[in-house]
Design goal:
Largest sheet: 7 strands, parallel
Radius of gyration: 18 Å
CATH superfamily: NAD(P)-binding Rossmann-like Domain
Bound molecules: NADP nicotinamide-adenine-dinucleotide phosphate
CATH architecture: 3-Layer(aba) Sandwich
Strand content: 5-15%
Number of strands: 9
CATH topology: Rossmann fold
CATH class: Alpha Beta
Number of domains: 1
Helix content: 40-55%
Structural class: alpha/beta
Length: 267
């Protein structure tokens, strides 16, 4: 494992991935290493990041840097920003979490932390990455939103953070048109990761057909990225669902979305 970013080889592009210790972030790490990237891996759990790095090195010969950071802390976000400013070709803002319980009963600190990880960190990291990419050979930023951010009804603060991510990414991508730097938004449905268990969201009523594996989601996202598509909604069932629900009158759409997503338990 590389001790510092400065050791990363210059002959391979570099991808920085937040949330790389688990789920979609770990799947991005594996796939981007396979595609020839060196990696900078960011999350809180240094042990799990080291394991992801070891696999990427063994399987794909990637040079990896582990950068443990708690993205609720401004000082840790600064560390990550400084690494991005040294130059990255690909940025995945994958770290994120949701919370269970009523908005009005939750501790404000938890809500602020959710905002920091889901919104503040992607904004800061995208800002640093785009500036650096525009000064260099261009690059790609993938921001993790969710199907939850497409139609109101599945909770409040988490869904709002994901709607922010979508508007932010698509708006910024328009502004970057023709520059060689793209910012895209990934909106997965239900993915088999630790997300729901960590959030305490009961998904027992979600039928098997809705679930996707992280590797499939990442493959479809990167296929969309390669085609220059700024919006990725992986999975036929998710595409049909969103197309159908978007055509319903808004109150009915929200009701369907709320029932499917067990929204009563989500903030
Ligand atoms: N799974 C789904 O069904 C689904 C659907 C739509 C969108 N998403 C979005 O996909 C993204 C990835 O989630 P996932 O499904 O892969 O869930 P996951 O398995 O729980 O992974 C979440 C990642 O975020 C990191 N993280 C959480 N809090 C952090 C903090 N304070 N500082 C730094 N890193 C932090 C975690 O690492 P540490 O614990 O090591 O810090 C972990 O690597 C999230 O943005 C989520 O909102 C997920």
């Amino acid at each position: 494992m590389a001790d510092s970013a400065a050791e990363a080889r210059r002959d391979r592009p570099c991808a920085l991935i937040t949330g790389a210790s688990s789920g979609l972030g770990a799947a991005f790490a594996d796939r981007l290493a396979r595609d020839g990237h060196d990696l900078v891996l960011v999350a809180r759990d240094a042990g799990r990041l080291a394991e992801v790095a070891r696999r990427a090195e063994e399987r794909h010969g990637a040079r990896c840097t582990v950068l443990p950071a708690d993205l609720t802390a401004a000082a840790d976000r600064r560390k990550v920003t400084e690494r991005i400013e040294e130059g990255v070709d690909f940025l995945v803002n994958g770290a994120g979490f949701g919370v269970s319980g009523s908005f009005w009963q939750l501790d404000r600190k938890v809500l602020e932390e959710q905002l920091a990880v889901n919104v503040t960190a992607p904004q800061e990291f995208t800002h640093a990455a785009v500036r650096t990419m525009l000064d260099g050979a261009g690059g790609t930023v993938v921001n993790l939103s969710s199907i939850t951010g497409l139609i109101p009804g599945r909770g409040s603060t988490y869904a709002a953070s994901k709607a922010w991510t979508r508007y932010f990414s698509l708006g910024l991508n328009e502004a970057l048109r023709g520059t060689g730097t793209q910012v895209m938004v990934l909106c997965p449905g239900f993915v088999r990761t630790e997300f729901h268990a960590r959030a305490g969201i009961d998904v027992r009523q979600v039928s098997e057909g809705w679930w996707m594996d992280p590797d499939d989601v990442v493959d479809r996202c990167l296929a969309d990225a390669a085609r220059g598509r700024p919006f990725s909604l992986p999975g036929l069932r998710n595409k049909v669902f969103i197309a159908a629900v978007s055509r319903l009158p808004r109150p009915l759409a929200q009701r369907v979305n709320r029932m499917l997503g067990n929204a009563g338990a989500r903030a």
